[in-house]
Amino acid sequence: MKKQYWYIIVAYVIMQLTLGLGAKLLATTGLFERYGRLEIAYAGTTWTIIAFAIVLILTLFWLRSDMRSRGKANISSLVFWSIIGIFMALAAQAVAALIETNLFKIEAGSENTESLIKLIKLMPAFIFVTSVIGPILEEIIFRKIIFGSLHKHFNFLISAIISALIFAVVHMDFSHILVYTAMGLVFAYLYSKTKHIIVSIFAHVMMNTIVVVTQTLFADDLERIRQQSEQLQFIFGGFLS
Length: 241
What we know:
- The chain crosses the membrane at residues 7-28, 40-63, 75-99, 119-137, 158-191, 197-219.
- One of its GO terms (molecular function) is endopeptidase activity.
- With 241 residues, this protein is mainly alpha-helical.
- The longest helix has 28 residues, at 75-102.
- Helix content is 80%, strand content 0%.
- It has 2 domains: 1-69; 73-240, no CATH class.
- It has helices at residues 3-17, 19-27, 39-62, 64-68, 75-102, 111-122, 127-151, 156-170, 177-194, 197-217, 219-240.
- It is globular.
C-alpha cells in the first residue's frame, strides 16, 4: 500500500477518535455560550464540520499524484453507472432492511441516522458532512484504498466483503450491519466495474442526500406510513395465523 494511503487512513482515524475532544476544546472558547444547554452540541457539530473538511483537503493533497495519473474515462459509461449506482445502492439498502426486519426481527430505523438527522436540524450546514464530505472520504478509504489494496491479492467477492464489513463496523451501528454491508458491496462493485472512484462517490453522495432530505423534510409522512404498514401487517397476520 502506498505511504500516502496510510497517511489518509491515519488522519481519518485520528479525526474520528478526537471529535469529542475537539468539541470540548471548541466549547471552551465561549463562542457557543449563547446556545445554553445546547452549547456542547453546537460546538461538537461545528468541530465535526471543520475536522472533516480538513481531512478531506489533506486527502485530496495526498492523492494529487493519483489524480494526475488517471487514464482516459468513457464519460457516457461513467454517467450511466453513476446514475444506475444510486438506484442499486437504494435497492440494496431497502432489501437488506427488509431482511433485517422480517427475518431477524430487527426494529426498522437506524439510531445512527436519527442522530445525524437531529444534528442537521440543529445546524443545517452539517448536511455537507453527511451528504458530501463523509461519502467522499468513505469511498476513498473503503473502496479506493482498502478494497483496491485487497483486490490486488484476492478476488472481487472476498475483497468486497472484507471492505464492506469494515465499512459497516466503522459506522458503529451493529444492529444494522447487514444494511451497511450491502451498500458497501454495491459501492465496491461500482468502483471495480468502472475503475473510477468518482462513480461510487457520486452514488454514495446522492444516496445519502436522498435519505437525509427525505427523513428531514418528510419525517411525519414517513412515520405515518410506517404506522399504517405495521397496522396492515397486524391485520393480515391475524387472517393468516
